[in-house]
Design brief:
5-stranded parallel β-sheet; globular; alpha/beta
Length: 264
């Protein structure tokens, strides 16, 4: 695995080399999870623009999407609002051999819902009380739960927001909620502290990732994830590809029906 790096001097070439090495280990881990029938949940929380999406992409981009799923839920429907709060998340939990990556999670209630007034005070307090119990149930069921909080400074968040506003490829990431979040920075800080105090348990602890430098954050977080598993490479049988035969099949190399134009 990659060596620990605590400074900001990593070049682009060094970063790519380290990331490739870690992603290779993630592939090995995925095969190990499948072989052993493990159930893994990794959730990422943090302020807007903390880098949750790019973190998940770095983890999942080399993995099999049939076994590694990203869960990023939108606003609950009217029906979901009447359900047990955790119900809409439970349906996305992994079966044996699967890894689920949550881009935000049930902790929405302790963050945005509480700060923005989308839930009542009693619902908020009920969540803080029941969340550790819920996560204890997950662990008892055999689920491996890892919780990461991506920390970003107000200066770095402002920089990333400005990039979103000026880059047409990132503009969709910016919303009115981002503006509200900036205005309520202190409220979110208080909400985070209360959340950590109630849900940072010995059984299911929170891990904080310094995320002002996205590259280092990705490397450090992936390294930390891998350190939680005693995995080994899974061997595969040798495969010899058979020769292609065209017997009984008429080649249609010159069929131009619906052939798209060669623009490039």
């Amino acid at each position: 695995m990659a060596a620990d790096k605590s400074n900001n001097s990593l070049t682009k070439k060094e970063y790519k080399a380290q990331l490739k090495q870690l992603q290779t280990e993630l592939v090995k881990l995925q095969y190990w999870v499948q072989k052993k029938g493990l159930k893994v949940v990794i959730l990422f929380e943090g302020r807007d623009a903390a880098g949750k999406g790019s973190m998940i992409k770095a983890i999942s981009e080399r993995l099999n999407p049939r076994h590694v799923k990203t869960v990023a839920l939108g606003k609950p429907s009217d029906r979901e609002k009447t359900q047990w709060y955790f119900q809409r998340y439970v349906q996305h939990l992994p079966a044996a051999g699967e890894i689920c990556l949550f881009d935000r999670s049930w902790y929405n209630r302790a963050g945005v819902e509480h700060v923005m007034g989308f839930c009542s005070k009693s619902e908020y307090q009920e969540f803080l009380t029941n969340c550790p119990k819920f996560e204890s149930m997950l662990k008892d069921s055999g689920i491996i739960l890892l919780k990461y909080w991506l920390s970003v400074s107000p200066q770095e968040q402002e920089k990333r927001f400005e990039q979103r506003l000026t880059n047409p490829l990132k503009r969709w990431k910016f919303s009115d909620m981002d503006l509200e979040g900036r205005e309520r920075w202190a409220d979110y800080s208080k909400a985070k502290m209360a959340m950590m105090q109630a849900t940072d348990t010995k059984e299911n602890p929170w891990y904080r990732v310094e995320a002002d430098n996205k590259k280092l954050a990705k490397l450090n977080c992936i390294h930390h994830i891998l350190s939680h598993f005693e995995y080994r490479s899974v061997s595969f049988p040798n495969v010899e590809l058979p020769a292609v035969t065209s017997t009984g099949y008429e080649l249609e190399e010159h069929d131009t029906n619906n052939l798209i134009a060669k623009i490039y």
